[in-house]
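Researcher: Checking consistency across runs. Here is Large ribosomal subunit protein uL1 again:
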Amino acid sequence: MAKLTKKQKDAHAKIDKDKLYSVAEGAALVKEITNTKFDASVDLAVRLGVDPRKANQMIRGVVTLPHGTGKDVKVLALVTPDKEAEATEAGADFVGLDEYLEKIKGGWTDVDVIITMPSVMGKLGPLGRVLGPRGLMPNPKTGTVTMDVAKAIAEVKAGKIDFKVDKTGIVHAAVGKASFSADKLEENARELLDTLVKMKPAAAKGVYMKSIFMSSTMSPSVQLDPKTV
């Protein structure tokens, strides 16, 4: 294991490994121990008591963070010509169809979210192997395949994120930036955690929220108390 720098040692020393922190305490502590030259992302890792291999325990959804993600989300709108003006006005960074499908075919994926309409989805099928692994494939369940393109773009720009449980039962999501106030980080984190609580599948047995860790891009993790959620 690489040796820790003095800053990293100081950060580790501030965390009580035996303590479960409240969401508010965790947010304040992660801010305190993040010493990066860039504005680090603050993330939650929530281990759920579900079996993601079973369809009735698959957790996937969307949540709008009250204070946004702090990230400038680059949106590609793959739309027919009659929807181009609407998509541009709503703030999409890239708008078009066939020329962007060709670019993606060539390996271009320099966007964070792709929003499209039902009639275009057939053209996206063959690009699944490029878009799927990068989490860019539009999906009606997350609101990225819709006739109301403008609304979908506005929501993504305002801080709507989608999340899904991975095969080990963990949901990873960014809930802001280290430059956010601790209050804003707490409110964003709570919004995600409350959404996960509401999504508890009837088929999930035993403890649902097993553990919650908050960290920033370069900081050690702070363990939160699931009982405070």
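Researcher: Does this match what you'd expect to see?
Model: One thing to look at in this run: Strands lie at 41-48, 60-64, 75-78, 94-96, 113-116, 160-164, 170-177, 209-216, 222-224.
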